[in-house]
């Protein structure tokens, strides 16, 4: 993925794509590969608000369930309804159709707590 100037990563293996003050959030390719085949995704409702590092949902794989942690504070403005019937999109296209939620970011300063793509690659290796 080429959007290194607007794509950030958390140490909890979520990514956020920044578009003005809206963020699209999903889990990283590394996270989905570690979990294995995703069979269920539990997402919040539109209008829910979360603080940075708060659990906003979970993903269930064949052998485990993993919490999803909010990379920055914000209000959910959209959820990826397609994941309800096609959770494997998280495995197949984690940075495209496998996105999970979109939020209105309430504190842009929190982006400084996240990692760049290069920093994240160093973190996981």
From TrEMBL:
The record's Gene Ontology biological-process terms are: glycine decarboxylation via glycine cleavage system; protein lipoylation
Give the note describing cofactor binding and stoichiometry: Binds 1 lipoyl cofactor covalently.
The record's similarity note reads:
Belongs to the GcvH family.
Quaternary assembly = The glycine cleavage system is composed of four proteins: P, T, L and H.
Q: Do the record's keywords include Metal-binding?
A: no
List the SUPFAM superfamilies: Single hybrid motif
The cofactor required is: (R)-lipoate
Pfam families listed in its UniProt record: GCV_H (PF01597)
> What is the native source organism of this protein?
Leeuwenhoekiella marinoflava
- Keyword Hydrolase set for record: no
Q: What does this protein do?
A: The glycine cleavage system catalyzes the degradation of glycine. The H protein shuttles the methylamine group of glycine from the P protein to the T protein.
Enumerate the spans annotated as Lipoyl-binding domain.
Answer: 22-104
Give the protein name, as stated in the record: Glycine cleavage system H protein
Taxonomic lineage from the root: Bacteria, Pseudomonadati, Bacteroidota, Flavobacteriia, Flavobacteriales
PTM annotation (N6-lipoyllysine): residues: 63
A cellular-component GO term for this protein: glycine cleavage complex
Q: Which UniProt keywords are given for this protein, alphabetically ordered? A: Lipoyl
Q: Give the gene symbol.
A: gcvH
């Amino acid at each position: 993925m080429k959007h290194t100037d607007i794509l950030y990563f958390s140490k909890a293996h979520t990514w956020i794509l920044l578009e003005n003050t809206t963020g699209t959030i999903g889990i990283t390719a590394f996270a989905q590969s570690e979990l294995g085949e995703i069979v269920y995704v539990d997402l919040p409702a539109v209008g829910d608000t979360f603080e940075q590092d708060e659990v906003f949902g979970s993903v269930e794989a064949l052998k485990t369930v993993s919490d999803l942690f909010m990379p920055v504070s914000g209000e959910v403005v959209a959820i990826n309804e397609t994941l309800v019937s096609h959770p494997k999109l998280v495995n197949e296209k984690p940075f495209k159709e496998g996105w999970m939620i979109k939020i209105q970011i309430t504190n842009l300063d929190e982006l400084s707590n996240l990692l760049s793509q290069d920093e994240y690659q160093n973190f996981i290796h």
